[in-house]
Every structure is written in structure tokens, then in C-alpha cells.
Write a structure and sequence with these properties.
Blueprint lengths: L2 H15 L4 H5 L51 E5 L5 H10 L4 E6 L2 H14 L4 E5 L12 E7 L8 H11 E15 L4 H4 L2 H5 L8 H10 L3 E11 L3 H7 L2 H9 L3 E10 L4
Parallel strand pairs: 1-2, 1-4, 2-3, 4-5
Antiparallel strand pairs: 5-7, 6-7
């Protein structure tokens, strides 16, 4: 599949996911129903219950971290959430920025945006908005945001160079991003990488951690910091479905691995 075809796959899958419950999403491959049969695969999702501003109606269980915890968001900040889904991290950010700040959620799945807007209508926030757009080509002005956050989304973007270039563009000078995402160690076997459901399920869109950091640095960001790093244990039922015996050994020995990380970096004042 080319980049456009992959985007269509992701869009279709997340349109379906938007209409599922959090419980359904957390007992499937990152929201892809049927992918894992009855295997409990809630290995990426984090517990938001104690987070100020958390709205259960906006939590579809699709994240792989809590980026707002490490984002250094302040009252009055303008915050952009990339791949905002039903608005979970947007509403947490709104609790921090208060009435003097603003929060924008960007997503290219209309069904998700409809859900986010309905949640926002219930909360009656006038300084939270949701925008339809592609992370690789955001319909947003230059130098607009103090902080950019994202949660388990950029791994699904085909051109990560474009994505981080756009993040740099929309951030104000000395602004920063804080992103939770999925990365790999070593090369994922082709059997996993080529499968469309696993791609939309947030595994095989991931790239090597070293390459991920290199892209961020290449785009001109500074002060790159990894705040959290969690090794993901893949259930044997999943490994049996996608890997041959030799590939399973590599996974079990840790020579090949999947990690969720939360990472931040700063846009220089130039």
C-alpha cells in the first residue's frame, strides 16, 4: 500500500473504533475489533481516572501514555492535540490552561470529531475547538501554539518527517511538544508490518526508536527528552498468529521489541 492507501485504511478503522466502547477497544488490538479474538490486549492504554479534567465519555482507551503529565502546560497556554480522537487529552489540557488559554484538537476522522464536539457541547467549553485535518499538512497557521501533544497517533502517520516538520511550523518559537507514541527496537517482521489491521492497530506503523529520534533532531528540535519508556509484551496468541518460530524467539529474547514512549522537545527561538 502507498501512503494514501494507508491513510484510508486508518481512517476506515478509526471510524469504526469511534462507535465502539472503551471496553471493546481495550480488549482488541488497539481498537481493531476481531484482530485478537478474545485475547486481552489492553497493554498500551493508561489509566486516566486520577487525572484532573478527565472525562470518561472522551476516553476510548486508545492512548499509549499520558503526554499532558510531562508537557509542562501552563495556565493561559495555547495547546494543540494531534489525532485528538474523542477529545480525551484536549479536556485534560483544558483543565490546565483554564479560561485564559485555548485548546485545539486535530483529527482527520470525521466520526471522531463528531464525538469530540458532542463531548465539548456537554462540557460547555468555549475555548476548545476541533478541526478536521491531516497531520502531514495541517490547516493551521505558523507559530500558533505553545504546546503540541499527541497520544499514540504519529506512528500511524506514513511520513513522519512531514509530521514533525508541521509540528515545528505551528509551534511558537521556544514552544515544545510532548508526544506519547509507539516505537520499535530492531526491524519488525514483514508478516506484522504488511498487515493492514495491525497497521491501524498501532503496531506496524511504528518505526525504530533511533530513527524516530533522528527525525526529530533533523527537523531542528532541541532538548529531546524521553520521559517514559515501557516495553510492550505481546501475548503468545498474537505472536503465533503473525510470526514463524524463529521470529518468535527474537521477540521473546528482546532482540526485537515494541515500546511505548513519551518524548518532548523544544522549537528553537530562531
Amino acid at each position: 500500500m502507498n501512503a494514501n492507501e494507508l491513510k484510508v485504511v486508518v481512517q476506515e478503522k478509526y471510524s469504526l473504533i469511534a462507535n465502539q466502547s472503551k471496553q471493546q477497544n481495550e480488549t482488541s488490538c488497539c481498537g481493531v475489533s476481531g484482530c485478537c479474538s478474545t485475547v486481552d490486549y489492553a497493554v498500551f492504554s493508561e489509566n486516566y481516572n486520577s487525572i484532573h479534567g478527565y472525562n470518561p465519555d472522551a476516553d476510548l482507551g486508545l492512548g499509549c501514555g499520558i503526554p499532558t503529565q510531562f508537557a509542562g502546560i501552563k495556565q493561559g497556554d495555547s495547546v494543540l492535540d494531534l489525532g485528538c480522537g474523542a477529545g480525551n487529552d484536549c479536556f485534560v489540557a483544558r483543565a490546565i490552561v483554564g479560561e485564559s488559554g485555548s485548546v485545539t484538537g486535530l483529527d482527520f476522522t470525521e466520526t471522531m470529531l463528531e464525538k469530540a464536539r458532542k463531548n465539548n457541547t456537554k462540557l460547555r467549553y468555549t475555548n476548545v475547538q476541533f478541526v478536521h485535518g491531516d497531520i502531514e499538512d495541517m490547516p493551521l497557521p505558523n507559530n500558533s501554539f505553545d504546546v503540541v501533544v499527541s497520544n499514540c497517533v504519529l506512528n500511524l502517520v506514513p511520513d513522519k518527517n512531514k509530521a514533525f516538520s508541521e509540528i515545528l511550523r505551528v509551534l511558537k518559537p521556544t514552544g515544545h511538544f510532548c508526544i506519547s507514541d509507539v516505537v520499535t527496537q530492531g526491524t519488525l517482521p514483514e508478516n506484522i508490518r504488511k498487515d493492514a489491521e495491525m497497521y491501524a492497530g498501532c503496531v506496524s506503523g511504528a518505526i525504530d526508536r533511533t530513527d524516530y529520534l533522528h527525525i526529530i533532531q533533523q527537523q531542528g528540535f532541541t532538548d529531546i527528552t524521553i520521559h517514559t519508556q515501557k516495553h510492550i509484551t505481546i501475548p503468545k496468541e498474537i505472536l503465533n498468529q503473525y510470526l514463524d518460530s524463529g521470529e518468535k524467539v527474537l521477540f521473546e529474547q528482546g532482540e526485537i521489541g515494541i515500546y511505548s514512549i513519551t518524548i518532548s522537545a523544544i522549537k528553537p527561538n530562531v
